[in-house]
Specification:
The protein is of the alpha+beta class and 117 residues long. It has helices at residues 8-13, 27-43, 80-90, 97-100, 104-116; strands spanning 49-53, 62-66, 72-76, 94-96.
Length: 117
């Protein structure tokens, strides 16, 4: 049976069975939790922008949300295309970190957090 074409965002949310341990959320639950977390972050902070990070040998692509204060959160996504689609769905500006680098406000926030410890 030929596989129908779907957007990567649709694949991100499609229901799949997983064979992980009981402590690990199912694929559908993890996707729902990711979307809820990102939405909460955006809804509770000002000036949030998304940065798409490329995959590494150990970690798949990620979406990084950075608020105007520099506070940030990061979540894994299946691929870069999904991250761009997810940012668009969430209604935030999105950038490719390969081209823009990380925002200075994020580095400043990280530095302040290290000093506070």
């Amino acid at each position: 049976m030929p596989r129908q074409s779907r957007s990567s965002l649709a694949r991100f949310f499609q229901r799949r069975s997983t064979s992980g341990s009981a402590a690990r959320p199912s694929g559908n639950d993890a996707r729902r939790q990711t979307l809820a977390h990102l939405g909460e972050f955006i809804g509770s902070r000002v000036g949030v922008e998304a940065y798409v990070e490329p995959p590494t040998t150990d970690i798949p692509s990620t979406i990084l949300l950075v608020a105007s204060t520099g506070e940030w959160t990061r979540r894994r996504v299946p691929d870069e295309r999904t991250a761009f689609e997810l940012a668009n769905q969430l209604g935030v500006p999105v950038y490719n970190v390969r081209f823009t680098g990380y925002p200075q406000r994020m580095r400043d926030w990280n530095s302040a957090q290290r000093k506070a410890k």
